[in-house]
Amino acid sequence: MLCTALILGGIGVSPVLAEPGHGIAMYGEPALPPDFDALPYVNPQAPKGGRIVFGEAGGFDSLNPFILKGSAPYGVGVYVFEGLMGRNWDEPFGLYGLLAESVETGPDREWVEFTLRPEAEFSDGSPVTVEDVIWSFETLGTKGHPRYLNSWSKVKSVEKTGPRSLRFTLAEEDRELPLILGLWSVMKKAQFEGGAFEESGVDLIPIGSAPYMIGDFETGRSISLVRNPDYWGEDLPIRRGHHNLDEIRYEYFGDGDIVFQAFKAGEITSYREG
């Protein structure tokens, strides 16, 4: 029997080109399809309204949650600011477009590129720009809280690649870092021009792009976050059914025992143990 062996030599196989996607997962593909309507654990038709009052021990002397100096209310970083991507808590580590309409990575995740949504805007109505994102990340990585330092040290460069797109080139292949960057908060660059970001306190009311804005507050005593009725991302699949309360309020007390007494007296509506 004559056996013929066909040896393919010198024939290169082109790598699969990366394409912009609606989401990104730590491993494998995102669990939700590009046309998903809402996250699987929310009620897309949830009614809006009401308020919740949390009790906190201690106080606050800053409205900047991204720096080491001072103490800022927890809710400011969570409800006033948002990132390029949003997380689906129904899968191990999967993110979907928020400020960014798409995300793209290199074959080995040696770079990640985000494209902003054209409709993304801050609560004052100004657009979220590539310049805002680049400034935010560079500022967080060099002047922000030390928790950002390790991730930023792994970024080799960041550049604007289009009117609404930017690319982070990583120092080495990293499956997790593109997701971490996708969760970093985006700030309004113009608000901090002429001022020291790392020294800001309660004198500067931050403007974010997330569903809530800072309302009335008394330094160290209380602060209200009010839902923005004109929030730009209200109908995004990643946001639909979320952030339904009109007001999220934090009241501060001397210690945890007083917080519990305030809860029993009906002064606050939620008490967190532990």
UniProtKB/TrEMBL annotation:
Keywords: Signal. One of its GO terms (cellular component) is outer membrane-bounded periplasmic space. One of its GO terms (molecular function) is peptide transmembrane transporter activity. Residues 95-268 form the Solute-binding protein family domain. GO terms for biological process: microcin transport; peptide transport. Gene3D superfamilies: Periplasmic binding protein-like II. InterPro entries: SBP_5, SBP_5_dom. The keyword Cytoplasm does not apply. It holds the Pfam family SBP_bac_5. This is Solute-binding protein family 5 domain-containing protein.
